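Thread: Newbie trying to understand structure tokens

Hi all, I'm a second-year student working on a class project, and my supervisor (Dr. K.) asked me to get a predicted structure for one chain before our next meeting. I've only ever worked with sequences, so writing a 3D structure as a token string is new to me. If someone could post the tokens and maybe explain what I'm looking at, I'd be very grateful. Here's the chain:
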Amino acid sequence: MQLIVNADDLGRNKLVTDAICSLVDAGLVTSTTIMANAPGFEHAISMIQRCRRCSIGVHLNLTEFAPLTGAPGLKPLLDAAGNFTKCSKWFILSPRLLESVYHEWQAQIQAVICAGITPSHLDSHHHIHLLPQFYPLIRRCQLDFKIRRVRRSKNLYAPVQLYTRGVLVWRVISHAALSVLTQSTVTDWFTDLPTFLRVHRRIKNIQTVEIMVHPGHPLFAEDERTLRSESWRQLTAEHDLIGYTELM
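---
Reply by user tm_fold:
Sure, no problem. This is what the structure looks like when written as tokens:
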């Protein structure tokens, strides 16, 4: 089995960035995605340039921090201070708003490229790229920047995780639509670290798994402890650790 250990939120702040880069240096994180509109972006660029032992993708963002573009069309997604906010209006997107989102994502990807990084893949903050109304925008960005690889929706669960049948069906349909409409290269499976630890002994005949981690984030402190543990080193010794650039 090939495992991609991807650290989200590079550039969110100094604490998160330093935690990710430390794990990259230790060979425990093989991939990361950077937030181009986050306050710690410049620090992240300076740090990640020194640890090139991982693939670096773009963490597309519409839910936190200020946009890079000043497009008036983004106003429905912003709070009073002009920052992105988690929005309940995702299913009421006008053509003007969608076009503004496209240009914002273009700007975020371009900022990463201008910093000297060739993005290996795309994912997003709070998984918003998996909303079907954004698939055409993802495809446009892929064609603009020649980025084939995209994070899929979660499809590996532990028995103790409770999801309604509707949620599970929705995720299957969502992934099928993502594959068809964006023609992306994706892993066979995608999950978080605690789930992978619960189920890895029971999964067979799977070639590639992306494991999402959040080093440096107070709500996910166990991620870093697990990655630095001897038990994790022993587990990963049984598999191949790869980055997104090696995903075919």
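A couple of things are worth pointing out once you decode it. Residues 20 and 192 are 16 Å apart (CA to CA). The chain has one domain: 2-246. Feel free to ask follow-ups in this thread.
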